[in-house]
Amino acid sequence: MEIDELQLKYSEKGRRYKTLEEYLLAKELKTHNVAVLSMIDRSGNMLCKLTGLDNVKRDQIDKILLARISKNAVICSPDNEEFKNLKTQSIKEKTIITRRTKKYGQHGLAIVKDKENDFAGWINYKFRGVATKYLQSYIMWYVVKHKYLLSRVVDDIGRMLNLAASDWEAWYVYMRLRLKHREKLT
Hints:
This protein is an alpha+beta fold. The chain is built from 7 helices and 5 strands, in the order βαββαβαβαααα. The longest helix has 17 residues. It has one domain. The protein is globular and about 55 Å long. It starts with a strand and ends with a helix. Helices cover 43% and strands 18% of the residues.
């Protein structure tokens, strides 16, 4: 399983501000990046999750990752402090891939990097960027489109698209980000 972090710019695309205070708060938030944790395994299963502002934290990785992997999993991750310090009790092997690392045969980050670049290009060129509060919905759309619709694996596509479109957690993550930042400023 390959795991990596994708950084996208924070955006409130299309928003109109009612007060000067809202505008200044949004201007401050726009200096940040939004972190997306992306994982892919050898069979092509993808998991992408919007985690918050700036960087993915280790406890977020543990919460997302350890609930979804088996005990005999091999994890390939980048040379990042948050990924180095993962709790590895239930993981068979953890491989840290650095820029100086020689190829380990089958271990590497090429597949997940390719999917991240494809996703970032899809967001930036097809839609010219999206608002951060809708980003998790676009992530789910991308995963469903590239995993299920291109390879025609699932017959009940309507049900799958309905499940992907009804990810209500994205709105709550967005609101928590805004409230945290507002508390920092006051």
